[in-house]
Amino acid sequence: MHLLSERELQVFLLLSHGYSNREIAALLGVTERTIKAHMAQILAKLGVESRLQAGLVAFAHGLPGHIGDSEGSDHPPDTSADS
Fold it and tell me: Suppose 48 and one of 23, 28, 53, 67 were both cysteines; which one would form an S-S bond, judging by CB atoms 3.0 to 4.6 Å apart?
C-alpha cells in the first residue's frame, strides 16, 4: 500500500474495518468532508470505483479487519504512526 499517504492508509484501514465516513471522521478528529476527499484519493490511487472494491483490495492484501481475520475486533485499529 505504498501508493497511499500515511493519512490515506489510516482511512483505508478504518474502511477495511467497515467504518462509515462519519465514523472515520469522528475517530480521526476531522470533518466528514475531509474523509470524503481522502476516499476519493484512495479510490483513484487504487484504481477502483467504490468502497466495496477498495475493501476487496484490503482483503486481497491481507489487511487486518476483514471477515475471518483473527486480528479483527469491535475496536478500531491502531492507526497511529507509532504502530
Answer: 53
